[in-house]
Structure formats: C-alpha cells, structure tokens
Amino acid sequence: MNTPVQSEAADDRLTTVSSTSQSYGALVWRRFRKSFAGMMGLTLVAMLIIVALFADFFAPVNPNAASESFSPPAKISFFTKDGFTLRPVVFPIVQSEELDPVTFQPLMAPDYDNPRRIVLFAKGWEYDFWGIIPMNRHLFGLEDGSPIHVLGTDKLGRDILSRGIVGARITLMIALTSITLITIIGTLAGITSGYLGGRFDLWFQRFVEVILAFPQLPLYLALTTLIPVTAPSNLFLAFVISVIVGLGWAQLSREVRSKTMSMARIEYVRAAIAVGASDARIITRHILPNVMSHVIVSVTLGIPAIILLESFLGFLGFAVKPPLISWGLMLQDAGNYGVIGSFPWILSPVGFVLLAVFAFNALGDGLRDAIDPY
Predict the structure, then answer these.
(1) Among 319, 269, 310, 314, residue whose Cα is nearest residue 289
(2) What are phi and psi of 109, to 5 degrees?
(3) Digit-coded pLDDT (tens) for 156-208
C-alpha cells in the first residue's frame, strides 16, 4: 500500500511527465491561464477588437450627426414615477428655466415625466455593414428611435460614445499597423545584423544609433507638418504611420540583435553552420523561433505606447484629420479649462485610451511571465 508521501511523489512525476510531453505553446498557455491580469488583458483586448470590427453596430447614434451641443449624459434608471421597472429607461435631457450662475446659459435637466425605454437590437441610423450590407440595427437604442447620448455630446452636438466606438477603429488600426511593420522591419534587421556581424554590423549599428539619437517627439511634430492640410485623410494617415514606423523600428532591432548574438553561440547553431546549412535556414529555423518570445512581448507592450502617441499627436492636431475619427482627435475638445469645468463629460475619450492601454499592458505582462517564468 502506498504511503501519502509516495502518492505525492508519484503525482509529481506524472505532472512532470505530462508537462515535458507538451509543446512549448501549450506550456506557455498553461502558465498564461494562471495569470489573472493576463487573462483580463486578453479579454479586454478581444472586446476592443470586436468593438472596432463591428463599430457601426455597437454605436447607437450616428457619430457625425449633430444635435444639442454639450448635452449632458443621459440619465438611465430602473425607476419611473410609477415605480420599479425591469426594462431600463432614459429620461430625455431638456432645458430648464434655471440659468448657470457662471455662463448664464440655460441648465439642462432630465425630463422625468417622459421616460423612454431602452431596447436591444433597436432600429437606428442606417449604415453599410463592412461597406457591403445596408443595415439599421444596433446593439441597443431607444424604443421610439430617438438618439440616446450615454456619455453626452461634444461642442458640435455629436454623440461622444458613438464617436469613441467608431474612433477605436482608426486608433487601433494605426497602432496595429504600425507595430506590425515595426516588428517585421526591426526583427529582420536585428537578426541579420547580429548574425552576420563584422563590418556590416558595425556600420549598421551606427545607423541605428543615429536614429535613436533623434528626439522623437519634436521630430514627429516636424515630419507630420510636411503634409498639407488639404491632403486627403488616407494620405495623411499613411504618412503618420510611416513616421511612427520609421522612428520606432530601431529600438526593437537593437534588442533582437543582442538576442541573436547570444543565440549564435549555442551548440546547435554552430552544428548547423558546421554541416553547411545556409544562412537563411539558420536564421529562419534556428534563431528566429528563439527570439520570437521576446518579439511577442515587445509587440504587446509597444501597442500602448503607440496608442498614447497617437492620442497626443491627435490632441495637438497632427495625427488624424476630419472626417476621420480617433480618440486623439476627440481630445481636442478638452483643450480648454473652461470647457472641462462646465462640461466634464467631454473628457470621456480619456477613459477609452486608459482602457486600451491597461488591456494591452496587462496582456503583455501576462505573456512575459508565461513565456519566460524565470
């Protein structure tokens, strides 16, 4: 009969055997699932991507439609004058007879006498689903088809929530496109420089140091001003992505180069060189898979930096031009202290940025611990 100590030892051996028989990806996923922050980040990132892909469906109001400027957020409640209701209602915002003691403008207040029910899959503004299928259904809306401003409106009377949802598409597109190009260029340049070494590595690293020596923020502002204001929005967007990529790949290439130089001294790489394997095969089959763990973590931690950069440039007016919508462009309305003091809901786009940055940072931290637990 086995003693408790023998049983525990047997369980440990079974766990060790099952762990060693799993692939590297399975082991990473097994460790990643134990990270609460990593799983939370993965869930939030998945939700952000889904919202960006189906932004028109999730946006309850036309993001470019104008109504009452600086209208406060709608008051959502489960209580009416008749008592409790299972279906939430919204009280429309109307002008009251009172005046603001500072601005002497009529105050906006909810109308408790005319509640409007919130329904799922409500009919609303018409849009083309992915530019193909005409639709007018949205995730939620009011039963009578009138607009609902959950986060209020901006200075032009446009719904902030709908603009934030649609703006996620542009902001995440800039971040994901930029980080993809940065990863491809930085990884290939770093592996090639670290593996070939010699005079090529010497001169190439001097070029990388020149790029890293530039003060990036003034250079971003200087380069983005080269595009005329009358240029098409797509051209301006492509130029912004090019500037971010052109200044962002150097740091990743330096990190990948150091990883490659350490990998080139490992026995199986030297054995591949000894048997006459080509440089392309050694780089793609032996070195690249071993540096991908570092690249993946760098990608997840680099996306928040690009989101913050786009938000900052958009706030200054150097990133996205109307009619495109991004979180940075929405923050331009919050550039006046008087506006913030009177209409604090205009700062809602800050919440979108913070949520995205937190999600990708949490995902990156979880991946870093799962890929390299030591």
Answers:
(1) 269
(2) -145, 150
(3) 888 899 999 998 998 999 999 999 999 999 988 888 888 888 888 889 889 99
- Which residues, 6+ apart, have CB-to-CB distance to 181 below 8 Å? 241, 245, 249
From residue 329, alpha-carbon distances to 194, 241, 266, 334, 353 in Å are: 40, 16, 49, 10, 12
**Cβ neighbours of residue 237 closer than 8 Å, sequence gap 6 or more:** 170, 174, 320, 324
All CATH 1.10.3720.10 domain ranges of the chain, comma separated, are 163-371
For domain 163-371, give its CATH number from 2.60.40.10, 1.10.3720.10, 3.20.20.10, 2.40.50.140.
1.10.3720.10
pTM of the model: 0.82
Instruction: State pLDDT tens for residues 247-286.
Output: 888 889 998 888 888 877 777 777 877 877 777 788 777 7
CB 308 within 8 A of CB 277: no
